[in-house]
Amino acid sequence: MILKKLTPLFLLLWGHWLVAQSSFPLFLQGTWQVDGKNNFEGWEMVTATHLRGSSYSINGEQKRSLETLDIYEQNGRIFYAATVPNQNDGKTIPFVLEYADGTTFSFENEEHDFPKKIVYTFRSDHKLSVRVSGSDGQGFTLEMTKIKTDVPTWYLQDIANQVGTWVTDNARYQSDHEPFDRYVMDWNWNTDHSSIRGSLYGMVREEKSSPFWNYLQYWDASSNEAILLQTGPKGISGSGTVIPTAPGETNVIQTFAGPDFPPYQEKHVTVRSGNHKITTSFHQDSAGQWQPGRSYTWYKDTFEYLPSSRIDTLPSGELMLVQTITLPATVTQVWNAYTTESGWKGWVTPVVEMDFRINGTIKSHYDSTAHIGDKGTIVTHILNYVPHRQITMQAELTENFPEFMQSDAANLYSIVTFESLDNNRSKLTNYGIGYKNEKKWLDLLQFFIRGNEQSLLQLKKYLSSDN
Question: Taking a C-beta distance cutoff of 8 angstroms, is the pair 42, 30 a contact?
Fold first, then answer.
């Protein structure tokens, strides 16, 4: 029998990728217009299993929000959540995914008055339909067309400059009620590389807080505007248009609202120069005039323990994905995280059966209630290894994987190397080889990059804990 195989580190992501392909409507990304109307629905990817969207209408230069939307995975189920202004007392109404076949996605909530069912059907790359119906099947259908957009250069440069980790000192404002000595903003690419997501959190010495705010910045094709969405505690959310005012300078006025807060506006001005930027916030006084508030100077920080990724071209013309991370642990500790059942469970999958030897296997499952051998079991083959230095692996593919991957499965390898930097730090590098220099592979590698970086961060988190 010919084994169908895939690089094992990439399988850390493939469990999520399979969910996304079979039961998650990633095709929604972009802006869709209802045929014959000035109504729109826009969707952006937050993570591989979280889409954030909005429905709105445009009348002349006036844009009116109709509802905010989210599709996300929680506890093994997929939810569609809709919040309509001035309806349902402002509460979010959840619908559960009851049927999905890759092109049709049916979300249902039998306890809601109307609608009880919302069905998205993918027709083609630029066409979809949405069926909204009640208990008797009566309702309406919206036919939608995807809007093509040319994203301006200033916007792409702006978000490219933002991507990374930014740190600012908070000594000027530090107090008993605000103990943070630094604030940190992380900005990362979404998979489409035309939008970014970020988070803001505080630091007390080396202790990191939970995020205060989460951000999503994207280009709205229907209004030809850069939009910044911001969500925070107690259901507060804000949205505004990012406007370039000079080279390296932007401002945004956001309107915020929440269940227990009246609407209010804030203005933020950002001036960038190289690897530092200055941000200034403004609030409105009683006369409606903008008054400056806090100002921070931020510096781009590589943060030693963040993963890095690059795609190299081999002399054969094939592609190689190289991903590296510095870890706060010895080589022995990192090696044990890869080669022992207790280590593997700490950062990869909750179920594993380890037979670590040349021509041995690692059998694992993402479902904590499953058993090895159940459907969904991942089988990774250990081809060879040099203790504490290198492992070469391949993994079996199933029929769930794309045909173009299955046909090239025998050429896909993962080589993991371990390098000691000093007594308490190690460098881990994963080489994923055998990928073709074709668009479908390049698109897939962009998806791999983000998922694998998250897996490497999970490894770092595991090694940083008392394990």
Answer: yes
